[in-house]
Amino acid sequence: MSSAESTPNSWPDPVSLHGEIVSVVPLHQSHCDDLKEASADGELYKLWYTTVPTPEDMADEIDRRLGLQAAGSMLPFAIIEKAPGKTEGKAVGMTTYMDIDATHKRLEIGSTWYRKSVQRSGLNTECKLLMLTHAFEVLDCIAVEFRTHFMNRQSRNGIERLGAKLDGILRSHRVMKNGTLRDTAVYSIIASEWPAVKANLTWEMEKPR
Fold first, then answer.
1. How many folded domains does the chain comprise?
2. Nearest alpha-carbon partner for 37 in 115, 119, 120
3. d(Cα 108, Cα 47) in Å, to the nearest integer?
4. How many CB atoms lie within 10 A of CB 185?
5. Alpha carbon separation from 198 to 164, 180, 190 (Å, rounded)
6. CB distance 168 to 134 below 8 Å
């Protein structure tokens, strides 16, 4: 399911995770052209309550995320939609392990977006299954968080379908690009809940569609 690429004095190490329909691989500037196309699909960057980079800003966003990786606060990935019968495909989005707390074995899965054409396709379910499995079963996390805008109902519904529970709302938590204040909905899955969450996600992937 995974292949690690060891980096001294880092937690978590860069890793590639592979499923049936999606792979999650270390982010690189070679993904830029695919991600520009993905951002333009549905003009996701125009959504006021989220922060999808514009095609023009994609290279800078990749550099920003890689800079945070170098600082030890983020592990960024490209989300790859696997072509039928192949292990490789096109990058259709981005995700990260972020707000990394190595001492207390906690992290957030966040800064995630997918091109419009692959949303509601099962790709997000498998992506989260891969990342959560690695977090709880390899990294031995005690908790994994998810955060989103209180008004981003699509994102909140998706997080709740994973089995995450709402911890609370951080009111006036962030200043958005348009000057509005973001109330942040904070969700988490804790280690004791992971077996049931994993069973449900596996069922979601295996059930007839």
1. 1
2. 115
3. 22
4. 22
5. 11, 36, 12
6. no
Q: Report the predicted TM-score, pTM, of the whole model to 2 decimal places.
A: 0.90
Q: How far apart are CA 26 and CA 16, in angstroms?
A: 6
**At 156, which CATH number?**
3.40.630.30
Distance between CA atoms of residues 66 and 25, nearest Å: 13
**Pairing mode of beta strands 89-101, 143-149:** unpaired
- The domain of 188 spans 2-206
pLDDT in tens, 133-182: 999 999 999 999 999 999 999 889 989 999 999 999 999 998 988 889 99
- DSSP per residue over 12-55, as a string? SPPEEEE-SSEEEEE--GGGHHHHHHHHHTTTGGG-TTS-PPPG
